[in-house]
Design a protein that fits this description.
- The protein is an alpha+beta fold.
- It folds into 2 domains: about 1-45; about 45-280, Extracellular Endonuclease, subunit A (Extracellular Endonuclease, Chain A).
- It has helices at about 1-45, 95-100, 145-155, 165-170, 170-185, 250-255, 265-275; strands at about 55-60, 65-70, 75-80, 85-90, 135, 160, 185-195, 200-205, 210, 215-220, 225-235, 245, 260.
- It is globular and about 45 Å long.
Length: about 280
């Protein structure tokens, strides 16, 4: 048969075999990346990831600030204090479906790293031996829906020095509660950051990373036109989530920031002036 094929036939067979092998390799690579691509497309195609004015925060004018937009979060970074002023993002039930599912990104695969494009951003090792955790403002548990969002949340522009017991205790309870609210209500807007009132401690290689005196979180459900705020000292104070609840107006009074200014003025006044914890549970 080899004689019948001749030189031209053999050349054709070799070429065909090479094409098959290359196609197999390309297909295998495509399948490896297909899971992550599908997850991002599921979120984006359903309109769940969008540029929303509701994530805009008017930062207290006393603080130095540069704004950096990442895939799933907006960071307002304090270039003098070397920590974020505020980190805000949209969190949806579609994202939660992915983060709670078998295809979610795993935290162990990611490490902290600096964003060289942001002035004052610390290196990961500047927190080492400080006695404080590298506390995520946008929690990793909320960002497991894509490789890029997960990678971005480990940037040091999203990190503050946080008491270890608080980070793993009552603050973690709040983060889990907010995670559940996104699943329950479909789409919420979250803004989180440090409180600097009375901040005295500094860490870092040049002792210029400010340790916050506390932390805030505000949550808005635009569909139900309701919002709630939370304030924690930077130590484990114990107690349930409700103990730390307050109005968004109270968080604005403490921080000097302005949240949800894109809402109609009358709606903003209504949702920020009062709160009902029972409305969220």
């Amino acid at each position: 048969m080899m004689k019948k094929l001749g030189k031209f036939g053999l050349t054709c067979m070799v070429a065909i075999a090479a094409v098959i092998i290359i196609s197999f390799c390309v297909d295998a690579k495509h399948k490896r990346n297909k899971g992550n691509t599908r997850r991002v497309e599921q979120v984006k195609s359903s309109g769940q990831v969008e540029s929303s004015n509701l994530t805009e925060v008017r930062v207290n004018s006393r603080y130095r600030n540069v704004k950096k937009q990442y895939e799933a979060m907006t960071v307002n970074f304090n270039t003098a204090y070397r920590v974020p002023n505020c980190v805000s993002y949209v969190l949806t039930s579609k994202m939660i479906d992915i983060t709670n599912g078998p295809n979610a990104e795993h935290r162990r695969n990611y490490k902290f790293y600096a964003d060289p494009s942001v002035s004052g951003c610390p290196e990961w090792y500047e927190y080492k031996g400080s006695g404080y955790d590298r506390g995520h403002m946008a929690p990793a548990n909320d960002m497991r829906w894509s490789r890029q969002s997960m990678s971005d949340c480990f940037l040091m522009t999203n990190i503050c020095p946080q008491d270890h017991d608080l980070n793993g205790g009552s603050w973690n309870k709040l983060e889990l509660k907010v995670h559940d609210w996104a699943k329950r209500y479909g789409k919420i807007i979250v803004a989180t950051g440090p409180i600097f009132n009375g901040s005295l401690n500094r860490i870092g290689k040049n002792h210029d990373i400010v340790v916050p005196s506390g932390f805030f979180k505000v949550v808005l459900d635009p569909a139900r036109s309701c919002a709630i705020g939370f304030v924690y000292d930077n130590h484990e104070g114990g107690g349930g989530v409700q103990r730390h609840a307050c109005s968004v107006d109270e968080v604005e009074r403490i921080t000097g920031h302005d949240f949800f200014s894109a809402l109609p003025a009358n709606v903003e006044r209504q949702v920020e002036s009062s709160f009902s914890f029972n409305q969220w549970n």
